[in-house]
Design brief:
- By secondary structure, the protein is an alpha+beta fold.
- The chain is built from 14 helices and 12 strands.
């Protein structure tokens, strides 16, 4: 439908707006006289369900019906007089742009039209329906803030403002999606962020041409580096403290209205193993837990491949008693070891997916049935061997230590399993080397994906596989926070107060 153009005829303007909503009974229209010295015909528009009708009555209808404007008030313009002396609202805008008028209605605002005016007043009366602020289910902590992002953009931005109280924190808005007109906000700290990375982010967002954006995942997939890689080059979080920490490191956050998952760029490989709780607990404990996550990811992709390689090709490396035990347990198994491993991994992933998608009480039952009943029955029926059940169980548990790496570990698990089944331990090692080469070749918004693991600079590796104490982490990443990489001043002697 072609864009309409407002005229000075109230009846024509009413008809044009109603034509745009032909067949849509949610649009509410009310003719209302405007209380000038000589009453002027007016009209009020809003969409039922999106608009707070109580605010419409208190901020617009009641002041108009009960108020009066002195003679000559319209000399400065009728709409100006209504804004200055009658409408009770902190958000009032006048416009003649058809797109802005339609967007205002769809976001819950009200329109006020007057006879003889080719502009309308947009009055803020939106009724945002949202859930309360609560801790994200996927990012729970033992110690730390309990707030989580919601689906309302303004609420999410306010939680960042509350944590970073400085004018250098900048928000840039844009609309994306030709049909959804989704509001997107880019957040960064001006005196820390890299201008080069910021320009690249804006360029990639400008290149997106799609009819709808319903979640930040749309944007994440369309602007990421190396889209064919199983590894993510754009991070996300539902925790305000995490995003605030990323901003303080010089990263850029991308907020999408309607999505609690906020994107952060650039995203480095080491961030898979970092959680916000690491920075709120003792650095010894945090470093140990971080090492466990790294070892868990490595074991998750390696255990099936190493087991198949040892049993199939490199049996001399298995202790005799253990080899006899494995051989005994495999007696009568109709499938080769590699097929047995693939079958069990697929079954485990089916159970995991089922437990994730169905309601929690039923999910617990599925886990019990899958782990105990099916596993034990398969072993007793000689379909799979007991060691393979142990191997797959360990593989699945270790993979859950880094849940966001789950997609990549699943693909790598099968790739390394294939390498190990063809060439034994040599194939497994060749697969690991290929993986390392791939990781070293990736860049995320111009930054090496493996940075700072790939550097030998002592200051840059203090928050990688181990976390140094806060008093010793004095600088930010020089590749990301290029303007200002000083986090804190170094104390005398480089020691905190009270340290012996």
């Amino acid at each position: 439908m072609e864009a309409f153009r407002l005229s000075q005829s109230l009846d024509d303007n009413i008809q044009m707006i109603q034509d745009r909503f032909q067949g849509d009974e949610a649009l509410k229209t009310r003719r209302i006289p405007l209380p000038f010295s000589t009453p002027i015909a007016g009209a009020l528009f809003y969409i039922e369900g999106l608009t707070n009708e109580d605010q419409v009555n208190r901020f617009i209808v009641q002041p108009i019906l009960l108020g009066t404007l002195k003679e000559g008030a319209e000399n400065n313009g009728r709409l100006t007089s209504l804004i200055d002396r009658l409408i009770i609202s902190g958000s009032v805008e006048r416009t003649a742009e058809p797109e802005r008028i339609m967007l205002a209605l769809f976001t819950g605002d009200s329109l006020l039209l007057a006879e003889g005016e080719a502009e309308v007043l947009i009055i803020g009366t939106a009724k945002p329906e949202t859930r309360s602020v609560q801790e994200p289910e996927s990012e729970k902590l033992v110690r730390g803030p309990r707030e989580g992002f919601t689906e309302v953009l303004t609420t999410n931005l306010s939680m960042i403002r509350k944590r970073i109280k400085q004018p250098e924190l900048k928000f840039q808005y844009r609309e994306m999606g030709k049909r959804t007109r989704t509001r997107v906000c880019i957040a960064y700290i001006e005196d820390i962020v890299s201008d080069k990375i910021l320009q690249e982010v804006n360029k990639r967002l400008d290149d997106i041409d799609i009819d709808g954006i319903l979640d930040s995942g749309y944007i994440q997939e369309m602007i990421k580096d190396y889209p064919s890689s199983p590894f993510e080059t754009i991070g996300y979080s539902e925790r305000p403290d995490v995003i605030a920490g990323k901003l303080l490191e010089g990263r850029i956050a991308i907020f999408v209205d309607g999505s609690p998952a906020v994107l952060s760029v650039p995203f480095l490989f080491v961030e898979y193993f970092q959680v916000s709780g690491d920075y709120y607990s003792n650095y010894f404990t945090s470093s140990f837990n971080r090492l466990l996550r790294f070892m868990g990811a490595l074991l998750s992709i390696s255990i099936p491949a190493v087991y198949v390689a040892l049993v199939t090709f490199n049996q001399e490396m298995i202790p005799t008693q253990l080899l006899l035990s494995i051989s005994s347990s495999r007696s009568g198994i109709p499938f080769p070891t590699v097929l047995e491993a693939i079958m069990m991994i697929v079954i485990f992933e089916i159970l995991l997916e089922a437990g994730t998608r169905i309601p929690a009480p039923i999910g617990q039952a599925v886990s019990i049935v899958g782990a105990l009943v099916l596993g034990q029955a398969a072993v007793n029926a000689r379909i799979v061997s007991a060691p393979m059940v142990i191997v797959v169980g360990l593989t699945g548990i270790t993979g859950l230590l880094t849940i966001r790496l789950q997609g990549a570990t699943l693909i790598l698990r099968f790739l390394l399993l294939g390498c190990g089944s063809f060439l034994g331990l040599y194939g497994y090692l060749m697969g690991l080397i290929g993986l390392l080469i791939h990781l070293m070749s990736i860049k995320t918004f111009g930054v090496n994906y493996m940075y700072p693991l790939s550097t030998i600079q002592p200051d840059m590796v203090k928050d990688t596989l181990l976390r140094a104490p806060w008093w010793d982490m004095t600088v930010r990443s020089k590749r990301i926070a290029v303007k200002n990489h000083i986090r804190q001043a170094v104390r005398s002697g480089g020691k905190p107060h009270g340290r012996q």
